[in-house]
Amino acid sequence: MKKSLHVRYFAVLREQRGLGEERVSTGAATAAELYEELRARHGFTLRADRLRVAVNDEFEPWGAAIRDGDSVVFIPPVAGG
Amino acid sequence: MAFRMTGSPIAPAALVEGFGDPRCGGLAFFEGRVRDLNEGRAVQALEYEAYVPLAEKEGERILAEARGRFEILRAECVHRTGRLGLGDVAVWVAVAAVHRGAAFDACRYIIDETKARLPIWKKEHYAGGASEWISCAERDGPAAGTTR
After folding, report:
1. Residue numbers of the domain that contains A40
2. A10, B121: Cβ pair inside 8 Å?
3. What angle, 0 to 180 degrees and rounded to 10, lies between the N-to-C axes of helices B100-117 and B52-69?
4. Complex ipTM value
5. Per the CB 3.0–4.6 Å rule, which of A79, B66, B117, B132 could disulfide with B146?
6. pLDDT digit string (tens) for A19-62?
7. What are phi and psi of B88, to 5 degrees?
């Protein structure tokens, strides 16, 4: 059963994807599986161990289950301040 | 809200004006400004991009941690998004305490955690037209999508 997710991209991921957000239909069970699927599809250069992930506007572990309708953001290395 | 992201210029003088508290004898302020050189390259402008809903939640958590760890009465932080020129204020932190020690310590804690934890990204624009997302290069070379 495929789920429909809302994925947002920022900074280097946004540029590599060529857009800021999209609907993704996936069979991935976890955030980690979803990233690997998208990385293979779009050629993202950053490996998952350099990123964090947020689901529904909260940081989550990579093993977190993703559910239909979730909003997912992959967070490249930050550089605020 | 004590923590906020803004796309408008930060004007510290006006913010300081509104920050006083008669209980507080020690006030510490920090301004992070855009400088003209990073790792030997001449910088002309910076662009900050933020995941605002999570940045604001995490920013509020940092301020709450500071209030829990240090003897302070007030803490605020403002961080820019968008394109900034040399000398522009990128981040502003203010702390008010009864005494100076806690004010300095909390101010330092807030700016350090802000830089380490908030989902904010910085693209540097260099003299000559190249640009690069800071910290986003892979170990085996610059991230694709950046230019040198």
Report:
1. 3-75
2. yes
3. 150
4. 0.94
5. B132
6. 999 999 999 999 999 999 999 999 999 999 999 999 999 999 99
7. -70, 150
